[in-house]
Design brief:
Helices cover 31% and strands 22% of the residues. It is an alpha+beta fold. The radius of gyration is 18 Å and the shape is globular. The chain binds 2-oxoadipic acid (OOG) and nickel (II) ion (NI). 2-oxoadipic acid (OOG) is lined by residues 41, 43, 93, 95, 163, 209, 235, 251, 255-256, 259-260.
Length: 272
């Protein structure tokens, strides 16, 4: 599979689940901008056949290289950033939930999900947009996971796919700041993730980021209960050059910590 095919597949899956993404994309194209992706991100459990170490070989086979590790102690997550084979291609952010740090009952729920995965499917790169690889959980199990981890609850429903694409603001001409981009997003009637402030990071840390609040969709839980849940979101990033003139390639843990909350059901995503 070529990198272009990989991203076409990811994009098609992502926009099917995230109507706001196509709208935002088209709005900037209509405004004369050229859309280049800064990065995409995936989430997984560090359990069963889909741990970060199980999924990483697909990225390496596409020519990606490991860059930097990140740790999110409070959210019980660890992650890696990956660099693309050539500079104008998207970076990748891959995180996993440290399941050992959840309660025994939450771990049992997660083991019940990942225990259903056909390990064969994880061998193909298509697993990265396969979505949920297990039967829908009950709403009670979803809520029990939610008590301990928004990420766990989201992943139990949405599964493996790009949870966001990120537009490179560096490649924009008129909308050349994250603030201008976010104003445009609001003019489309879409919400911004304000956790930690509308703009995360600064030129000092060589990366500024902002994101939408995830779209919402109805989902059928086990037993037929239908509830609205957050799906996926869109991000906007502007990178700066360091003192040696080299464009920053990493992520910023303090900012990423807040970007994760773009898919939150609860409170903090509305806080300032
Ligand atoms: C990833 C959040 C972190 C970034 O650019 O810092 C991130 C996620 O929501 O899974 O994408
Ligand atoms: Ni991101």
């Amino acid at each position: 599979m070529t990198l272009d095919q990989f991203f076409d597949n990811l994009w098609n899956d992502y926009t099917a689940m995230t109507p706001q993404a196509q709208r935002i994309h088209d709005a900037f194209v209509d405004a004369g901008e050229n859309i280049i992706n800064d990065h995409v991100a995936f989430r997984t459990f560090d359990r069963g056949p889909i741990t970060l170490a199980d999924l990483e070989p697909h990225l390496l086979a596409l020519g990606y290289t490991r860059y930097e590790p990140y740790d999110f102690a409070a959210k019980k997550l660890r992650a890696y950033g990956y660099l693309p084979p050539s500079p104008d291609q998207p970076r990748v952010f891959l995180s996993e939930l440290k399941c050992d740090e959840l309660s025994a009952s939450a771990q049992r729920i997660i083991d019940g999900l990942v225990g259903q995965i056909d390990a064969e499917r994880v061998q193909a790169p298509e697993v990265l947009w396969a979505g949920r690889l297990w039967a829908p959980p009950s709403f009670e199990d979803y809520q029990a996971l939610m008590e301990e981890s928004e990420y766990a609850a989201w992943l139990a429903i949405i599964g493996l796919r790009a949870n966001h694409f990120t537009i490179s603001v560096n490649h924009f001409h008129s909308y050349d700041s994250v603030e201008k981009v976010l104003d445009k997003i609001e003019s489309l009637g879409l919400g911004i993730n304000a956790s930690g402030g509308r703009i995360k990071g600064s030129p000092d840390v060589l990366l500024e980021q902002g994101s939408t609040l995830a779209d919402r969709a109805e989902f059928s839980f086990a037993g037929g209960q239908i509830e609205e849940i957050p799906t996926c979101y869109y991000e906007f990033a502007k990178r700066y050059r360091d003192v040696d003139g080299k464009l920053y390639q990493g992520f910023v843990a303090a900012s990423a910590d807040k970007i994760f909350e773009s898919t939150n059901v609860r409170g903090e995503r509305h806080a300032g």
